[in-house]
Protein backbone atom coordinates (compact mmCIF):
# COMPACT_ATOMS: atom_id res chain seq x y z
CA UNK A 1 0.00 0.00 0.00
CA UNK A 2 2.78 2.39 0.91
CA UNK A 3 4.66 1.73 -2.35
CA UNK A 4 1.47 2.34 -4.32
CA UNK A 5 1.07 5.74 -2.65
CA UNK A 6 4.68 6.61 -3.46
CA UNK A 7 4.12 5.59 -7.09
CA UNK A 8 1.00 7.80 -7.29
CA UNK A 9 2.92 10.68 -5.71
CA UNK A 10 5.69 10.33 -8.29
CA UNK A 11 3.13 10.21 -11.10
CA UNK A 12 1.46 13.42 -9.84
CA UNK A 13 4.86 15.13 -9.63
CA UNK A 14 5.63 14.07 -13.23
CA UNK A 15 2.27 15.45 -14.43
CA UNK A 16 2.98 18.79 -12.67
CA UNK A 17 6.44 18.96 -14.28
CA UNK A 18 4.90 18.29 -17.69
CA UNK A 19 2.29 21.02 -17.08
CA UNK A 20 5.01 23.54 -16.15
CA UNK A 21 7.01 22.60 -19.25
CA UNK A 22 3.90 23.04 -21.42
CA UNK A 23 3.26 26.50 -19.92
CA UNK A 24 6.88 27.52 -20.56
CA UNK A 25 6.70 26.31 -24.15
CA UNK A 26 3.42 28.21 -24.67
CA UNK A 27 5.08 31.40 -23.39
CA UNK A 28 8.11 30.87 -25.64
CA UNK A 29 5.84 30.25 -28.65
CA UNK A 30 3.89 33.47 -28.02
CA UNK A 31 7.15 35.40 -27.61
CA UNK A 32 8.63 33.96 -30.83
CA UNK A 33 5.41 34.73 -32.71
CA UNK A 34 5.46 38.37 -31.61
CA UNK A 35 9.15 38.67 -32.51
CA UNK A 36 8.48 37.20 -35.97
CA UNK A 37 5.63 39.67 -36.54
CA UNK A 38 7.86 42.60 -35.51
CA UNK A 39 10.80 41.50 -37.65
CA UNK A 40 10.95 43.21 -41.02
CA UNK A 41 12.79 40.69 -43.19
CA UNK A 42 13.39 43.00 -46.19
CA UNK A 43 14.81 45.67 -43.86
CA UNK A 44 17.06 43.08 -42.23
CA UNK A 45 18.33 41.93 -45.64
CA UNK A 46 18.97 45.54 -46.64
CA UNK A 47 20.95 46.14 -43.43
CA UNK A 48 23.07 43.01 -44.03
CA UNK A 49 23.80 44.03 -47.63
CA UNK A 50 24.78 47.53 -46.49
CA UNK A 51 27.05 46.04 -43.83
CA UNK A 52 28.78 43.85 -46.42
CA UNK A 53 29.27 46.81 -48.76
CA UNK A 54 30.72 49.01 -46.01
CA UNK A 55 32.96 46.19 -44.86
CA UNK A 56 34.35 45.78 -48.39
CA UNK A 57 34.99 49.52 -48.64
CA UNK A 58 36.84 49.41 -45.31
CA UNK A 59 38.97 46.47 -46.55
CA UNK A 60 39.86 48.37 -49.73
CA UNK A 61 40.85 51.47 -47.77
CA UNK A 62 42.96 49.38 -45.39
CA UNK A 63 44.73 47.79 -48.35
CA UNK A 64 45.38 51.22 -49.87
CA UNK A 65 46.82 52.44 -46.55
CA UNK A 66 49.08 49.39 -46.30
CA UNK A 67 50.34 49.97 -49.85
CA UNK A 68 50.97 53.64 -49.12
CA UNK A 69 52.94 52.79 -45.97
CA UNK A 70 54.98 50.19 -47.87
CA UNK A 71 55.78 52.72 -50.58
CA UNK A 72 56.71 55.35 -48.00
CA UNK A 73 59.13 53.04 -46.22
CA UNK A 74 60.62 51.93 -49.53
CA UNK A 75 60.55 48.25 -48.67
CA UNK A 76 58.73 45.65 -50.68
CA UNK A 77 57.68 42.26 -49.33
CA UNK A 78 60.90 40.50 -50.32
CA UNK A 79 63.10 43.17 -48.78
CA UNK A 80 60.97 43.13 -45.63
CA UNK A 81 61.39 39.35 -45.40
CA UNK A 82 65.15 39.59 -45.86
CA UNK A 83 65.32 42.31 -43.22
CA UNK A 84 63.37 40.18 -40.73
CA UNK A 85 65.57 37.13 -41.40
CA UNK A 86 68.69 39.25 -40.91
CA UNK A 87 67.37 40.61 -37.59
CA UNK A 88 66.56 37.10 -36.35
CA UNK A 89 69.97 35.75 -37.37
CA UNK A 90 71.66 38.70 -35.65
CA UNK A 91 69.66 38.00 -32.48
CA UNK A 92 70.78 34.37 -32.34
CA UNK A 93 74.35 35.24 -33.27
CA UNK A 94 74.61 33.71 -36.74
CA UNK A 95 76.84 35.57 -39.19
CA UNK A 96 76.21 34.56 -42.80
CA UNK A 97 79.14 36.68 -43.99
CA UNK A 98 81.53 34.58 -41.97
CA UNK A 99 84.01 32.69 -44.15
CA UNK A 100 83.62 28.96 -44.30
CA UNK A 101 86.66 26.77 -43.89
CA UNK A 102 88.29 25.30 -46.95
CA UNK A 103 86.70 22.14 -48.16
CA UNK A 104 88.90 19.27 -49.28
CA UNK A 105 88.91 18.94 -53.05
CA UNK A 106 90.84 15.71 -53.41
CA UNK A 107 88.05 13.60 -51.97
CA UNK A 108 85.70 14.30 -54.84
CA UNK A 109 88.16 13.35 -57.59
CA UNK A 110 89.21 9.99 -56.21
CA UNK A 111 87.09 7.11 -57.38
CA UNK A 112 86.48 3.81 -55.71
CA UNK A 113 89.17 1.35 -56.59
CA UNK A 114 87.93 -2.00 -57.77
CA UNK A 115 89.38 -5.22 -56.51
CA UNK A 116 90.28 -4.07 -53.03
CA UNK A 117 88.47 -5.88 -50.28
CA UNK A 118 88.34 -4.70 -46.71
CA UNK A 119 90.00 -7.02 -44.26
CA UNK A 120 89.52 -6.98 -40.53
CA UNK A 121 92.65 -5.97 -38.69
CA UNK A 122 93.28 -6.44 -35.05
CA UNK A 123 93.86 -8.95 -32.38
CA UNK A 124 93.51 -12.61 -33.05
CA UNK A 125 90.05 -14.01 -32.93
CA UNK A 126 88.83 -17.28 -31.66
CA UNK A 127 89.26 -20.51 -33.56
CA UNK A 128 85.71 -20.15 -34.82
CA UNK A 129 86.46 -16.66 -36.21
CA UNK A 130 89.61 -17.95 -37.89
CA UNK A 131 87.64 -20.79 -39.46
CA UNK A 132 85.01 -18.38 -40.81
CA UNK A 133 87.73 -16.10 -42.18
CA UNK A 134 89.39 -19.03 -43.94
CA UNK A 135 86.08 -20.01 -45.53
CA UNK A 136 85.53 -16.43 -46.72
CA UNK A 137 89.02 -16.29 -48.18
CA UNK A 138 88.46 -19.55 -50.06
CA UNK A 139 85.18 -18.25 -51.49
CA UNK A 140 86.90 -15.13 -52.81
CA UNK A 141 89.46 -17.14 -54.80
- Average of the residue pLDDT scores: 84
Radius of gyration: 44 Å
How many separate helices? 5
- Name the beta content range: under 5%
Secondary-structure element sequence? HHHHH
Going by helix content, strand content and strand pairing, the class is: mainly alpha
Number of strands: 0
Pfam family, one: Snf7
InterPro entries: Snf7_fam
GO biological process, one term: vacuolar transport
Protein name: Charged multivesicular body protein 2a
Characterise this structure:
- Helix content is 74%, strand content 0%.
- The protein is flat, with a radius of gyration of 44 Å.
- It has 5 helices and no strands.
- The chain starts with a helix and ends with a helix.
- Among the domains are: 39 residues; 53 residues.
- The mean pLDDT is 84.
- It has 141 residues and is an all-alpha fold.
Task: Name the descriptors.
141 residues; mainly alpha; 5 helices; flat
Give a short synopsis of this structure:
It is built from five helices and no strands. It has about 140 residues and is mainly α.
Amino acid sequence: MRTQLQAISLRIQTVRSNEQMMQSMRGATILLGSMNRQMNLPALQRIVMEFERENEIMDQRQEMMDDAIDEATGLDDEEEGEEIVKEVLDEIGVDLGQALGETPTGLQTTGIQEGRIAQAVGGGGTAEDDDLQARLDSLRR
